[in-house]
Amino acid sequence: MVLDKGSRCAQACVIIFTLFFWLTGFVLLFLGIWMLVDPKRNYLLDLVNFSEDEPLLKFAAYSCLAAGSITLVIGFLGCCGALKGVRCMLGTFVLFLLFLFLAELTIGVLALIFKDKVFDLFADALADRKSTNSSA
After folding, report:
1. Quick check: is 10 in a domain?
2. What is the pLDDT of residue 26?
3. pTM, whole model, 2 decimals?
4. What is the pLDDT of residue 98?
5. b or e along 54-69 (b: 16 or more beta carbons within 10 Å of the residue's beta carbon)?
6. DSSP one-letter code for 106
7. Which of 40, 51, 78, 104 could serve as 18's disulfide partner, Cβ 3.0–4.6 Å?
């Protein structure tokens, strides 16, 4: 298959984008593994006011591992589809990107709708944090 200059440029752009996409997948995997394995994470837990046995911390670590794995698979589909010119792989890649965009859009809309609850939650947590630090 002979590609003209525009097609080669589009192919290179998709490959570069999927490489950055892969990089974020590896970062998420590294972050998840680090949160599960690092024995000296107490300094990090003090910043976010978690205890060592907090179930939310393990949930966040496993979520990072799952999101990183899914990101790597999606990036693989896009990169192989761009290199080989397989329309099915590229279509699947675009479908997954559309799904991710809609999920992020939904999270943003929900954050706007419930922003008062989120600000109250953070204000209460900050007030509790200040009262424990000032009494110590």
Report:
1. yes
2. 93
3. 0.67
4. 92
5. eeebeebbeebbebbe
6. H
7. 78
- 54 phi and psi, to 5 degrees? -65, 125
- Give residue 129's identity as a one-letter amino acid code: R
Residue among 105, 77, 108 at smallest CA distance from 91:
77
Per the CB < 8 A criterion, the answer to whether 65 and 29 are in contact is yes
Residue 121 lies in a domain: no
pLDDT attached to residue 37: 81
Tell me the one-letter amino acid at 13: C
What DSSP character marks residue 50?
-
The residue segments making up the domain with residue 66 are 5-103
Q: Which residue in the block uniquely carries the two structure tokens 């680090």?
A: 34
Q: What pLDDT shows up at residue 85?
A: 83
**Residue 64 belongs to some domain of the structure:** yes
Q: Is residue 66 part of a domain?
A: yes
Helices then strands, counting H and E runs in the chain, come out as 5, 0
Please give the tally of structural domains in the chain. 1
pLDDT, mean of each 10-residue run, the chain (136 residues): 76 88 90 78 57 67 88 88 87 90 85 77 70 62
- Computed over its alpha carbons, how large is the radius of gyration of the chain? 21
**124-to-46, 55, 130 alpha-carbon distances in Å:** 17, 21, 10
